[in-house]
Amino acid sequence: MQDGHIINLCHKGEYELAFNGIVETYAERLYWHVRRFIWSHEDTDDLMQDIFIKIWSALPSFRGDSQLYTWLYRIATNEALNRLKKFQREFALSLDAVSEALAARIDEDPYFNGDALQRELHKAIQRLPEKQRLVFVMRYFDEMKYEDIAEITGTSVGALKASYHHAYNKIKESLENADL
Questions:
Q1: Domains of the chain (ranges plus CATH)?
Q2: For a tag on the chain, would you pick the N or C end, based on fewer CB atoms within 10 A?
Q3: What is the CA radius of gyration of the chain?
Q4: pLDDT digits (tens, 9 = 90+) for 111-161
Q5: Contacting residues for 148 by C-beta, under 8 A, at least 6 apart
Q6: Structure pTM?
């Protein structure tokens, strides 16, 4: 379903049809977006339920000031980051320790079907600082424009480009030093 049609349904108060359109159109994309942060199929599935509950609850207040997909990605991204922060607090871990724990999940993931290079790429991404990881994932995997990422994250385009550049260089260095 097209975003314009979903927004029209919202404006008409037909929230159930709009929500069904969102789920039909965005469930898989949002799943993979969140999965790149959480790295566990089961945890991602649980978080997706929370994300869709939040979307359902917020749908009547969606005014259309932003694009529908950036609004949805903002909700999904914030929920994923909040889950990571909760994980950090629960286990009293540093951000580096959380990143390493998530990188280790890649090796343990029975659903991961990539080769050794892809595995190392994903580990390198998990080791990035949060802001760099966020912009790299959205730009590289989700193929978003910097302007859309800026709308989702509330960060300037210039800062995002700098973060992406730093992330790219760290990943490149990590892959060059990997024992493949």
A1: 1-92 (1.10.1740.10), 94-180 (1.10.10.10)
A2: C
A3: 17
A4: 656 667 888 888 888 889 889 999 999 999 999 999 999 999 999 999 999
A5: 67, 69, 70, 73, 138
A6: 0.80
pLDDT at 166: 97
175: number of CA atoms within 13 Å, CB side?
15
pLDDT at 109: 65
| Distance between start and end Cα atoms, the chain | 43
Whether 77 and 30 have beta carbons less than 8 Å apart is answered as no
Distances (CA, A) of 73 to 42, 60, 123, 168: 20, 17, 23, 22
Cα angle, residue 126 at apex, residues 140 and 98 outer, rounded to 5°: 150
pLDDT of amino acid 120: 85
